[in-house]
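pinging the channel bc i need a second pair of eyes. not urgent but kinda urgent?? the chain im working w is below, pasted from the shared doc
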Amino acid sequence: QVQLAESGGGLVQPGGSLRLSCAVSGSIANINAMGWYRQAPGRQRELVATITSGGITDYVDSVKGRFTISREYAKNILYLQMNSLKPEDTAVYYCTRGSQYSSGYESEYWGQGTLVTVSS
């Protein structure tokens, strides 16, 4: 059974940083691609960042230069480093496991989500 467990969310002031972690059951080395989604209140779910098994990353324009997706094979953990946070980054962030196709990333398994609140 695939399990994804996020942690690291919380309250942070604008301009601050947070690092989200996602513990993955099984070896992440065998996973085609993983990604982070977010959903803010009253807004549609948004794909924030993806990383393929080959290490290719992609980001939504609004977080480019501020967020970094990475993984640690030894611990089977996916990370999302978030810097220069803005109030509009406030959302529930979800870790996903999926596949990267020529048409884009498709998620298959989801974590329970972790809340990030950016506010002064």
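so Residues 33 and 100 are 6 Å apart (CA to CA). and The mean pLDDT is 96. — does that match what u expected or am i reading it wrong
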